[in-house]
Design a protein that fits this description.
Oligomer: single chain
Largest sheet: none
Strand content: under 5%
Helix content: over 70%
Number of helices: 10
Radius of gyration: 37 Å
Order of helices and strands: HHHHHHHHHH
Distance between the termini: 74 Å
Number of domains: 2
Length: 311
Amino acid sequence: MAGPTSSTVRFLHAAVLVLIALGGAGLAAAADRQHNPIQRPELTRRADGALRPVVDQMAIELSTAEDALSELSLDGRNVLGRLQVLDLLATEEAIAEGEVPAAAVAQAGDRLRTLVADAAGIVEPWRLGQATVAQLEAVERASLAAVAVDDDWVGLAAHARRVAGLVGMLREHDDRVFDATSAGRQAEWDNALGLLDQARSEIVDATMARDELAASGNVATLDDLLSRYRAYDAALVALYEHMRDGGQQSGPEFEVLEEQVAQAQAALPADDAVLSVVVGETAGPVIAAGLVALDEAHGRVNAALELVSGS
């Protein structure tokens, strides 16, 4: 029986070399593959451990943000509650009290973002275990929410101050009208008309505030109130001008003017309760949305803190 030819031998040698080369390439690819931490959890242990100091620092910042958010949520509810009862001084105090924790939350958020970036520089994310990756992702979400808190508070505070300013204008109007009617009873017509002019100026300013508030709230009750104020002011002006110009305090013309004042006065609200309704309609939706945003940020911070602290 004849042995293999030289060409056959060369072919077999070449085939063996090809198989060896392919096998070596497969081993090299397997050695360079990013291993699945579920299948090989021991491979991520060292990488996870390298981030332990950073994760511990994240827990500290998250705890700081959580404490400040708890305080801020209370301040936000105080703003709405005090505004609702028309305590304008206490409303401003609650707004000022919230500025400190709002800034603290945002600063903690900035530090958390820095820590997340630091972590990526220490260990490549693909080398980490799933638990550590979940922690970092939760911290990143919490950091973004925390950074936005300061702007959320600024928006809430600005709207509360706008509504408080409106209430202040309406109260100032009432005071000037009261002063005007007091002057009218003393037959001080010029003084009374000057005070009514100041009162009307407050209504002009309140109308401008109303136009701003209409973009985000319900101004139906406010519109009705402003209309009643304008009618009463106009009736008083007409009566006092009649008296200043030497008009008679009797006769058909005087009786018509006096009746118009009486009707306009009867249409006015009896107390400040209507202002609480105005506050609820104009401030409630915006401030409530701000409080929801704070609660959502609080939830993200708490979720991240639980993951980081529970590891």
